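Reviewers asked in the last cycle whether our approach scales beyond single polypeptides. To address this, we selected a multi-component target totalling 834 residues and predicted its structure end to end. The input consisted of the following lines:
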Amino acid sequence: MSTPDGPTDLVGMRERNLALVLAEIDRSQPVTRARLAELTGLTKTTVSAQVAALTGLGIVSADDPVPGGRGRPGAPVSVASGPIAGLGLEINVGYLSACVVDLTRQVRIRRTVARAEAGDRPQDAVAALANLARLVTRQARRAGLVLAGTTVAVPGVIDGKLVNAPNLRWDALPAADFLSDAIPSRPLPITVDNEANLAALAELWFGAGPGLGDYVHVSSETGIGAGIVVSGALFRGAHGAAGELGHVIVAPDGPPCRCGGRGCLEQVAGLDALLSVAGIRVPAGANSDAATLGTAVPDRPPGAGAAELVRRLEAGDRRALDAARQAGRGLGVALVAVANLFDPASIVLGGLHAQIAPWTTPHIAAALEAGGGRLRGRSPVLRTSEVADGAVLGAAGEVVARILADPLAVARQERAR
Amino acid sequence: MSTPDGPTDLVGMRERNLALVLAEIDRSQPVTRARLAELTGLTKTTVSAQVAALTGLGIVSADDPVPGGRGRPGAPVSVASGPIAGLGLEINVGYLSACVVDLTRQVRIRRTVARAEAGDRPQDAVAALANLARLVTRQARRAGLVLAGTTVAVPGVIDGKLVNAPNLRWDALPAADFLSDAIPSRPLPITVDNEANLAALAELWFGAGPGLGDYVHVSSETGIGAGIVVSGALFRGAHGAAGELGHVIVAPDGPPCRCGGRGCLEQVAGLDALLSVAGIRVPAGANSDAATLGTAVPDRPPGAGAAELVRRLEAGDRRALDAARQAGRGLGVALVAVANLFDPASIVLGGLHAQIAPWTTPHIAAALEAGGGRLRGRSPVLRTSEVADGAVLGAAGEVVARILADPLAVARQERAR
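The resulting structure, written as structure tokens, was:
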């Protein structure tokens, strides 16, 4: 039974119509006011008033502005490409990353720096992230952009307002307070989310887009995670831990896992397992981006281990091919569970598994076709992500999504200060 | 980004408020109008008007009616226990079932008849179901009930309006037309849904209720399925096939399955696998309710095979215990995938697996604790269903849910005739 959360009132109605008009502009831009009225079912008068309000907020712009005015009524309108923008930050074991995305989802600034390996105190990591945020904020200001809020991607589970990120040695930290004390975010408050979730959303905003339908996005750097997107929104689970694909059991008698189980997907298809089967040894630290320690790099290079694996796969190295086959079969078993339980329209391979997809997808596709494919009739479409650095892009995109979903929030928050 | 599907208008607002008031009565009954105003945030005048409208529709009744009136304004109101009711039907391999549930979700009539084993033409099965529906409708009329609609549970996948039920030899049938021609349903149109989905919803309406949080309900008679309930509604997947738990792979090198895969859960924890490991032979047909062929039975007995298995488990028979251990371990692997991917608050074992739960849950609980439990922090609560015949109950409950979600639909449909 579906009922609204609260009573419907006129103010709420106006705000919803504003968001409705903006969502339609975002979807159909450039679009005229007359067409917006058709698409939304609102009157032309209402649409014109909403467009004027959105233009006043700096969120929408007329494509053919009349000097001193807000464009001819017949001219199409679009989401404004500036000055409002969102800041995405990512904190990971080996690196820190930042990017700025404007309301049209153009990436305006990207910056990644290496950091020392885990062992840092949480506050050291946050201080380093705050430095990066300040740097990028200055750069954005020079580019004429106004940052309206910040989202931080972390490799951990967010349950309510607590963050558990074992790889960062963060244990039940009150994320919002902890981060908002160190990192500026205004007028919108800072938010924090799981990197796999944000990388999954990045696919929607910066990758294949709504054509994916409901999808499961596989994230993989060192570990393996997944983000599940249903009707354009994340499926988070009862405790915020949905999508832990790396700990689906694919070999019940397989090797023990750090999670306490045996034969988890991570143990047969994670980076360490791949390198071990392929016989690739990587100097300590070089496996992650800590290889670039202390240097600012324009774009995060793949880890040395993954790069070497891809080189050997391209050269047809037998052990590397064995590793890919084992990983592909393991992914096949886990993704059959995903297909049978979630029945998504698409499955998108990201990160490391996008890089080695040419060698694993035949095994995955065969598993999906055999494993219940005959019963279901339709198997999910298997795709490879073309989005690099999805987590930090998704973080910035999340700020943009917050603004577009509630365009008055920016003004409300500024008034409240 | 979340936006409403269409423009908000005043008529829609009134209808939503009506549904809002009714949902609150359903949740908090008996409840006074004054309390309803507090709970909904609507004015007392609005609430009184909505309660009067709902009383006029026969959906709500005042607990202390004034002769000729609609109850004192201070008297509490409740959902009416009559005359409006919903008809649930279930068509399965071995039996047909019907039940009538009133708007307070009291079961008023239940009736199950055996039918010949599969091989019937679809229209024969539907004709037999139509006979049962007529019988029960007459019985309901004699009890002073007015049926407002029908929902049919089938063991198959519903994709759009097509039903695929391989066990019934139904292949891409246009369910609504097919069923609505034979089976009366008015004023609300007939609907059809998967038995595992409806059994899962029955848990919400006739079992442990909203306290379950988001949950996954395991259905098992001959095969194994699951229904996934998120925020009180079914999670259906992109093609209506979500919850195919029976085809999650739990033994990658295990026996082949009818789905085309190997080592599916059904192959190690389905009824046939359990009976085979336990060394139980059942005469042909006696394994399902076809054992009671041609006789009307007041309540569907468990299949002979399942009953024998439980007897032997209770007697401590070694082979039966081996079968339960194998099934428990297999369920453990599959439910670890459920816990890691969906992160539900509860997992409910139903059907056959509710009956043998005392012997399988130790294995399942151990698997859930080991398999990622340490990472997640919280494992789903494992429960055993106390609802028998969940699919047909869920079907009738679904009619009630349709009425409560859109109380004007009954009147609208009647006017349209």
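Chain B touches chain A through 78 residues (CB under 8 Å). We regard this as preliminary and will revisit it once experimental data from Aim 1 are available.
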